């Protein structure tokens, strides 16, 4: 059983941190497509919660995801006991 799930909600960011390159040394490209809608994340989260109750949300800047509040409430409601924003 996995210890946790690490999800990237968006690659958008409002900073320009030198360390933000995913470990490759190459900066993340500008996103060419939009983030998943909340309904798609709900399907994904319902599948993940069957395997772990630890959820780590990242990005870019996860707070730039337009439905972050609803996603956090949904995550708690469907059974994630530990939720982290990175």
Characterization of this structure:
The chain has helices spanning 38-48, 68-78; strands at residues 5-10, 54-59, 82-85. With 86 residues, it is an alpha/beta fold. The protein has a 3-stranded parallel β-sheet with strand order 1-2-3, covered by helices on one side.
The CA-CA distance between the termini, in Å, is 22 Å
Q: In which range does the helix fraction lie?
A: 25-40%
**Biggest sheet strand line-up:** 1-2-3
Assembly state: single chain
Major sheet, described briefly? 3 strands, parallel
On the 0-100 scale, what is the average pLDDT?
87
Low-confidence stretches: none
Radius of gyration: 13 Å
Number of strands: 3
Beta-strand proportion: 15-25%
Gross morphology is globular
Secondary-structure class: alpha/beta
How many helix segments? 2
- Along the chain, the helix and strand elements come as EHEHE
Relevant terms:
3-stranded parallel sheet, 2 helices, 3 strands, globular, 86 residues, alpha/beta
Structure summary:
The chain has 86 residues and is an alpha/beta fold.
Topology overview:
Layout: E1 5-10, H1 38-48, E2 54-59, H2 68-78, E3 82-85
């Amino acid at each position: 059983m996995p210890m946790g799930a690490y999800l990237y909600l968006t690659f958008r960011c409002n900073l320009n941190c030198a360390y933000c390159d995913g470990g490759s040394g190459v900066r993340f490209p500008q996103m060419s497509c939009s983030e998943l809608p909340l309904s798609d994340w709900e399907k994904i989260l319902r599948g993940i919660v069957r395997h772990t109750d630890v959820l780590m949300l990242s990005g870019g800047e996860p707070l730039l995801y337009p439905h972050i509040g609803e996603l956090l409430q949904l995550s708690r409601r469907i059974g994630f006991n530990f939720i982290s924003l990175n």
